[in-house]
Amino acid sequence: MTTTQDATQATALAILDALCARLIEAEAELNALDRAVGDGDHGHNLARAANALLAIRDELAPLSVPEMLKRAGKAVVMSVGGASGPLYGTLLLEQGKGLPEGEASRADWARAFTLAVEGVARRGKSAEGEKTMLDVLGPAARAFEGAVDQDFASALAALSQAAVDGHLHCRGLHASRGRAAYVGERSVGQDDPGATTAMICVQLVAAKLAEGAA
Amino acid sequence: MTKFLNRPEDAVTESLRGFARAHADLVHLEDQPRFVRRKTLTPGKVALISGGGSGHDPMHAGFVGRGMLDAAVPGEVFSSPSTEQILAAAEAVGSDAGLLCIIKNYAGDLMNFEMAMELYDGPNASMVVQDDVGAAGGSATVGRRGVAGTVVVEKIVGAFAEQGGDLEGCRLLAESVAAATRSMGVALGGCRVPTSEKPNLELPLGEMEIGVGIHGEPGRRRGPITSADAIVEELMETLLADMQPKAATPLLLFINGLGGTPPMEQYILYDAAARILDAKGLTVARSIVAPLCSSLEMPGASITLTALDDQMLALWDDPVHTPGLRWGV
Lengths: 214, 329
Known about the structure:
B: alpha/beta; 2 domains
């Protein structure tokens, strides 16, 4: 018999696998974006994060979803390095901390996502509007939390769309945080590598959840 | 940008292994998590650690030894070391007298050092070097990048710690040296990370990037390569306008090769910079011309100026015995 708990765990693992595969595949593309405005290591760092998670997949598999997120976040924070390690690790860790143990409602998930994005902002000492991953994650979290009372498919669509819109808006911003800040005006019109990664991740998670909910 | 490599992803590991073996009298390489420490620690001394992405040799591992760092934490090429690496280095060399982290101002380094220090139990302090005046933007929001001036901080504070300076004294001195230091670079070409097919910084042949960062980040201006004198004049004008040194202040003039520019040309740059300082009635008290903070194989150089006071000058002259800097021993 499959319980809800098992189904949630299976979904979480399927999302983990899909995210890791996508980040490894996107390595060269993300490095190229980073070379234009920074030091060209963004794709490597995320691929390293993905490989760090795949290396502990067996350890993650039996855990409850909040514990799985916390353990995954800790691994990324501690072992990945770069700027992405602390930021994505914090995102996972805080998402896990924000969920109740036991049954979590969709509203609980949305709240925890908002809290996790706030955790990333604190870790990076940054805010929206500075041309970073927060320009995707902030609007995405608000859209999801705002729509989560509707049917789930609409909430996921809103989540995904907000990430895409945030990414597009971010392109026109003048970078004032992250390595791109040093290029000044030359950053306007360039895609921010961190924002691009955040969009890829949010879209993929939304799509996987939509598949699971269908 | 052809390279001597086995597997590109093993470049940092193999290079550090060679480094540690070549300098086994001075340093010891720990693996998993990876850091380089002094072979012999001095009990009761404030420990100094630094770290950052690899590819800037001899910075930082080359400055582990008496009179400079106690440990260095190398990340992947151009990428901050992880929190667990920094924590492991801190735990290996930190003493009851304290631990000072010397951090270059990059988001990844700042976050990983900060998290490692949240987890480290002993007395500790951190300071951030931001000496690069070359970038077009960023200084108002993220501060300046930390570049070759970090070497000067590590040398002077390293000597002070060796003499028994306490943790707060070391931190204050490090802040003073950093505040008295400015750097600016120029690239005549790019550099390529071993695991990447493309270079960081793609410069058309005959063009230069004025104000370039040590990872090939854009600077403030790109244009045709001019004479060495004209390039140095542009760098020195920016440095001196920012620094405003007084005529009597003893200056350290440090020409740093970025990896692909030979010593012969580094001395041409030194000559040009020294002539400018002479003409302005400024005093070059100490000089160093060497690739100490490189950027892989990048053809280019940076100029660092530090306005020394008497204490800094004496500490600069103190003995240092590391793989990358050695005098007075």
